[in-house]
Structures are given as structure tokens and as C-alpha cells.
TrEMBL record:
Zinc phosphodiesterase, which displays some tRNA 3'-processing endonuclease activity. Probably involved in tRNA maturation, by removing a 3'-trailer from precursor tRNA. This is Ribonuclease Z. Its EC number is 3.1.26.11. Keywords: Endonuclease, Hydrolase, Metal-binding, Nuclease, tRNA processing, Zinc. It holds the Pfam family Anti-Pycsar_Apyc1. It is an enzyme of class 3 (hydrolase). Binds 2 Zn(2+) ions. It comes from Muribaculum intestinale.
Amino acid sequence: MAQFQINYLGCGSATPTLRHLPSCQVIDFRNNLMMVDCGEGAQLSMRRARLKYSRLSHIFLSHLHGDHCLGLPGLLSTLALTGKEGGTITIHTFKEGAAIFRRIMDFFCRETPFDIQYDIIAPGTNDVIWESDALEVRAFPLIHRVPTTGFIFKEKPKLRHIIGDAVAFHQVPVREMQAIKAGADFVKPDGTVIANERLTRPADPSMSYAYCSDTVFSEAVARAVEGVDVLYHEATYLDAEHEKAHMRFHSTAAEAARVAQLAGVKRLVLGHFSKQYADEEGHLAEARAIFPDTIAANEGLRIDLL
């Protein structure tokens, strides 16, 4: 079972091509699937990646341009026919997106064997929009031609590790273990306090992943994603076309690398490539000159954060 895995299903821009599909990623967190953007071909890419439809529970849409959301009606229709019985799929989107997709689903697929809920994201939101016991998802604003949001998927602090010999020596009851893992000291029946540091080792670090879809270069974005383990940042163009990129509210590979550098992230993944390029070698060279730990996304790429 994947603990925290990013599956890249589409990393092109604007339209599907023979090399790349439009934007789509699936985060596999402890056997629960969360999709980020849903461009055309998303459902077929899920099949190719052997990601089970039945485990999909959340879909986060960064914005309402077709290459980021037009795969959603087909995916939901297929789930209704073959893929998911019971439960809920929550779609996190702007209010306009909820209105559009409610109308489409009401026309094409009025009845589904699962519930569809819409969680409305207000433009400009910079806050946690969903959380579980172990994970939180934060939205933050990007700068594009229409309201657009980025997402940070961050593990909550983990429990400390029990030192077996120490808890045996101090005769710690099983009923106290969870509290000790969470950082509590142990108080013996005679009142003696055993410090937590004597009973446990530090917890494993919590991991984080940031998704920056369509956006111009912005130091505010760099501040928002500061310190994440892996940053996905759009790199539609090479820097030779930075004027075109800015005019269309996109970024170059060099600008994506500058965001990674400013934010102090550990690893950069480039994506959202324009169809005008035959390959991503130029993007990689440009970005690595600024931020060496850079890779290019491709359909089928998997990254395990744990």
C-alpha cells in the first residue's frame, strides 16, 4: 500500500497530443485516492496506472479552463456505470464549477450509486480546505487569466517511536502507549515522572507536496510553498518566450526553478508543457541551471514521498 505517492497522468497544456495529455494527477495517500485536475483522458490514464476507481474520494480542480477539468463528466459517468458503489466523491472547485458540473451530471447521469458533493473554494483562498486525521490540504492563490488555486498536501505530525526496552524497564501499561507516542510523559504509580524522551525516539518527518498549475512567476507563490518536499510547477515555455508566457499568464522553466529556489523546496517537478516543443530537454537544462534537483513530469511517472 502506498503511503504518500504522486501519480502523474497528464502533464501537457491546452490540448491532448500524441506525447502528452492535459493536466491530471492522482495522490495515493494510505490507499485513498485524490485527483488533482481532471483533463481529457483522465479515466483512461487511471486505468493504465492501475489506480482503482473505487478508491477515488476527492477531486481538486485548480481552475476552470478545459484542459484542467473537461475529463470530469466522463470520469464521473464511468464511475457511475462501472467503478464505484456507495460512498462520496467530493469535488473541490469554485462556485461556477459546481454550477456547471451539476448541470452536466443532471443531464447525462442524473442517478449515481455514490454521492457527489461540492466543496466551494472562494477565489483567493489561502487556508486549509480539507483535512483528515493524517493529512491536510491547503489552497493558495495563483495568478492566471481566471481565478486559479494551488494546493499543498501536507501530512500532519506523526507519532513518536516507542523504545521497547525502555517501556518494558519502566513497566509502562499498554493503555498508556498511545499517549506516550503522542508525546506525553509517563507517571509511575509512586509519582515518579519518566520523561517522554527516555521512552521514545523522534517521529518520522511529515512530508508535503505542492501543486502549482497555471500561473505567472510570483514570489507570493514561492512564499506559499516554502519548504515543501516536492513542488510541481508549470513550465509551459522556455525562457526565450518569457514575454509570451507572461502575456498568457504562464511560467517558463527558468521561472519555475526560481520559485523552487526561493521557496527552498527539496525537489522540483516541471509540467504543463506546450505542444510546440518536441521534448523537455530544453526545459530541464534551463531549470537545472538554477535548481539542480529538477525532473520533468511524464505520463506514468510515480514519486513516493515516503
